[in-house]
Amino acid sequence: MAPESFGYHVTPATNWPSIAEKGLIAHVGERSECLQESPAIFLFPTRGDCDTALGQWLGDEFEDIPENGLLILKVDLEGLPVRAPAEFEREVHVNIPAERIVAVYQEDWTLRECGGVGMPQEPQDAFSP
Fold it and tell me: Which structural domain range is residue 34 located in?
């Protein structure tokens, strides 16, 4: 699959149990509420874009999250309606099933889990911050 068929979504590790069960749910989050955005899931097209955001504005947004308290989800976007409002950002305005998460990384890009369908049955144990 081409690299542009994937996106990287950053989330607090405490969200993992719900994401593993329900997938990524398009909604208007705290960071988008003031911008009057429509429900969406925001992703980065490359690891580099994700790193840049975490080192700048996105890292500032998550400053209340403890060290190693974030996860980076690699998501299969093949066939999904993806918008690219900026070169460094992708939006999906539909829910993304958990099976489309093909890898889970710690903030330092240490691989935590991979395989989508093979995701852990008890993620709260595997991904506690």
Answer: 3-119
